[in-house]
Design a protein that fits this description.
Blueprint lengths: L37 E4 L1 H5 L7 H4 L5 E5 L5 E5 L7 E5 L2 E2 L20 E6 L13 E6 L9 E9 L4 E11 L2 E12 L16 E14 L3 E15 L15 E18 L5 E17 L15 E21 L2 E19 L5 E18 L3 E17 L8 E14 L3 E12 L3 H5 L6 E2 L7 E13 L3 E22 L2 E21 L5 E10 L2 E2 L7 E2 L6 E9 L4 E11 L2 E4 L8 E4 L2 E12 L8 E9 L7 E3 L2 E2 L4 E9 L1
Length: 645
């Protein structure tokens, strides 16, 4: 949860609790060569996507795909890696729920978020355990100057779609303070091709965010954050199976509260040492009503299936950094996470208790040498224990080593080439091993850890109007945890022998003239399972390719416009209606998205900025399935206003 205090903002680990301080002002673009393992979405990029939740932003990151599963949860996958290989952080607080080791992005608010940073590939070990494929960080906005800022936004559209948010950011003495609140919801999602509305696809959520930060001992800082949200949502049933076999779930209650604090201190008068200590507390609770439309909301009857669960998670991290000189550093880090999950799955049934400890230690050094070379090397160790496993046999304690290497060569101020390699492991979550998901899964307490080895070669170049990046990568997942059909409309998670994912990635941004921008991303994957029983078989839920391309016209005032295409290549999807182990091939698809706006800067007679906008999502009403039987939303028209005071 902590970054070294003297590190530059862009070099902080994904698990740093970061709140901008009053004395941090960004005044010009850096002359440093372009970064090659991360992409940031700033305030403008966030605003033009009119997000109600993080699910609306994740797909803008390179090689990232956001898909909704049969539980109604939206997850991000990077370079074809499963969603549990991606860690998500809000101001450094881990958002992945330890019970399931993933987070529903549709219930992660974006109010009060100033920047979204995505990291991919062999990332630093200081990102913490579980970041096998990368991470997504939600970071606070920067308050420029001494005047307070208030932002108000609202948008409404078809099928009851809407959002409203309010944020106030100000200084109070040495404190930098922020408060924000939001609502977003919908009555239903439309089916593509004008086929009506998705059954049970409603959503309503409220959220609150409070932040505070102040400097300590000059370059040190104290950072505090508190946030919470409460939601109710439906789970649209699968369309490829008979109605009696589909999930008919609702989440009548889904609540979460998070508290985090971090203290970063320079040690000694020379400033060669930094010490950081941090902690967070996470409280989560939800209810799942699987009784179907005729029983939703009805009084509970003993013996009925109805899940109530509560999670309590504590997380702490300690890091010591030694700055050897201006070109070298060594960081030692230790972290521990404890989670306790309690649940009842039958009305009047027993309460089952599950718990897990996840600890890690890492040492990582970085040195800049021979003017233009940079080497980062790290070693780590992760350990997991399961003291409580409900009514099942607990897994034995397990440990795994971690390795990270990255060599970078700067070719002047405009270009960078690099080579990177890593070995990371992930222990199965409690739910993967022990949960039956109200009859949809067969538990597998014998599930073991998976290990991923990655290598990557890439380059980046930045000119006055053009920026290009490219990478070739190879991921090899040993004992990969995959979902397979067990027949009878059930799945089971098993360790597959090996999953091999080679690929290439291209990213480009071109600004041919002032206020015009063309951006494009394209990723190609060749994912195969190397299993003795099923040699050279396809891997689940990894598109052969995915692309994003857009054109934007964005003068500082007056008319603004943008259009974007999102392409998802063909992929295989696990299908519980087929015999054991079989999958369905889903076709490629493309959706187009259009946004028009008018922006007034400093409205006469006030200091306000106003923007009116109109957007049309999935312009041509095309069907692109997230998984078999789970189509994405059809065409939706909406409009709104953003006001800055």
């Amino acid at each position: 949860l902590l970054g070294a205090t003297a590190a530059a903002a862009n070099d902080q680990a994904a698990d740093s609790l970061v709140v901008d301080l009053p004395d941090i002002v960004v005044s010009a673009e850096s002359d440093a060569p372009p970064a090659t393992d991360r992409t940031s979405l700033g305030p403008v990029e966030i605003e033009i996507r009119d997000p109600g939740s993080l699910a609306d932003l994740g797909l803008a990151l390179p090689s990232a795909r956001v898909a909704t599963n049969s539980r109604g949860d939206s997850h991000v996958m990077i370079r074809g890696a499963p969603e549990r290989h991606v860690q998500t952080y809000l101001d450094g607080i881990p958002l992945n729920l330890p019970w399931d080791e993933r987070v529903d992005l549709e219930t992660v608010p974006t109010v009060g978020v100033g920047r979204v940073e995505g990291r991919r590939g062999p990332t630093t070990l200081l990102d913490g355990p579980g970041a096998l494929a990368g991470s997504v960080r939600l970071l606070p906005p920067t308050l420029r100057g001494d005047d307070p800022v208030t932002r108000v936004g609202a948008a409404f559209g078809e099928h009851g779609t809407g959002r409203a948010d309010l944020m106030h950011h100000r200084r109070a003495g040495t404190w930098n303070l922020m408060g924000a609140g939001a609502w977003h919801g919908r009555d239903a999602l439309p089916l593509p091709d004008g086929d009506g509305l998705r059954t049970n696809s409603d959503l309503e959520q409220w959220s609150l965010l409070l932040r505070g930060a102040r400097p300590v001992r000059g370059t040190g800082r104290l950072s505090l954050v508190a946030t919470g949200w409460s939601a109710e949502k439906g789970v649209p049933p699968e369309l490829h199976v008979p109605a009696v076999e589909a999930r008919h779930w609702r989440y009548p209650v889904r609540r979460r509260a998070l508290l985090g604090a971090a203290l970063d201190l320079p040690l000694g008068s020379s400033g060669n040492w930094d010490l950081g200590a941090s902690a967070s507390a996470d409280f989560f609770g939800q209810e799942i009503d699987p009784r179907g439309p005729d029983r939703w909301g009805a009084p509970l009857v003993a013996g009925e299936d109805y899940e109530k669960s509560h999670d309590r998670t504590g997380f702490g991290r300690l890091r010591l950094t030694r700055w050897l000189d201006s070109s070298a550093s060594l960081a030692l880090q230790g972290s521990a996470r404890h989670t306790r999950h309690t649940e009842t799955v039958v009305v009047g049934g027993p309460e089952l208790v599950y718990s897990q400890w996840l600890t890690s230690a890492a040492a990582e050094g970085e040195v800049h040498f021979a003017t233009a070379w940079n080497l980062r090397a790290g070693l780590g160790w992760d350990h997991a224990t399961t003291p409580e496993a409900g009514d099942k046999t607990a897994n034995d304690p397990a440990s795994a080593g971690a390795l990270n290497l990255r060599l970078t060569r700067e070719l002047g101020r405009t270009s960078t080439v690099y080579a990177a390699a890593s070995r990371r492991s992930r222990f199965p979550s409690l739910r993967e091993s022990y949960s039956g998901a109200l009859g949809k899964f067969v538990p597998n307490p014998e599930l073991g850890a998976e290990r991923q080895d990655q290598v990557e070669l890439g380059a980046a170049w930045r000119g006055s109007s053009l920026r290009l990046e490219g990478a070739a990568f190879l991921g090899r997942l040993t004992d990969g945890i995959e979902k397979v059909s067990e027949g009878d409309n059930q799945f089971k998670r098993v360790n597959r022998a090996r999953i091999r994912v080679p690929g290439v990635e291209f990213i480009g941004t071109w600004t041919p003239v002032s206020h015009w921008e063309l951006h494009a991303q394209h990723t190609i994957l060749v994912a195969r399972v190397e299993d003795d029983a099923l040699p050279d078989s396809p891997a689940e839920d990894r598109p052969d390719y995915q692309s994003l391309a857009g054109l934007r016209w964005h003068p500082p005032s007056g008319a603004n416009a943008g259009i974007e295409a999102r392409v998802t290549g063909p992929r295989w999807s696990a299908d519980s209606s087929l015999p054991t182990g079989m999958m369905t091939r889903l076709p490629a698809g493309v959706t187009w998205h259009l946004r028009l706006a008018w922006h007034w800067v400093e409205v006469p007679g006030s200091t306000s900025d106003i923007e009116l906008h109109l957007r049309l999502d999935n312009v041509f009403d095309q069907r692109v399935d997230d998984q078999v039987g789970l189509p994405g939303a059809g065409r939706v028209l909406s409009g709104g206003i953003n006001l800055t005071l």
